[in-house]
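When time allows, look over one protein, given below as sequence and tokens. The question is which stretches look regular and which look disordered:
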Amino acid sequence: MTTFDFSPLYKTSIGFDRLANLLSSAQRLEQGGGYPPYNILAEDENHYRITMAVAGFGEDDLEITSEQNTLTVSGKRAEDEEDGEGRYLHRGIATRAFERRFNLADHVKVTGASLQNGLLHISLQREIPEAMKPRKIEIGSGRTRLIDVKKEGQEAAA
């Protein structure tokens, strides 16, 4: 496997450290072996949904945290006690602890979460501030007038 050294990016750029961190973390192998499985759905241009298969986990066993463009979903079940029904011959339903991290783009916020039929649904929405939205600039048909600073208040036609 080829590895890349992104340290020169840290020395020559200012304000792009998040991008460099994202690139360096993308080259690492995913931890956890793909557990639990998940889907990411783009419902439209500004709405997304993450669905994770978390069978065997209840609402109290799951924790969702959003901090600095990172969404973290973790789950930990209390140890099962022997309930007198017998002993397991095979235990195929995974209930091990997990932690999944998702990198969120700027202005993407978590709007809700629900647990239904062993699936955790997390709703996300991109909210672009008004100042950053594209806007149309009207072109005027009148003449542009410049003020000559040297003549103090006299206008010069452009």
Observations:
- Strands lie at 38-42, 47-53, 62-67, 70-75, 98-103, 108-116, 119-126, 145-147, 155-157.
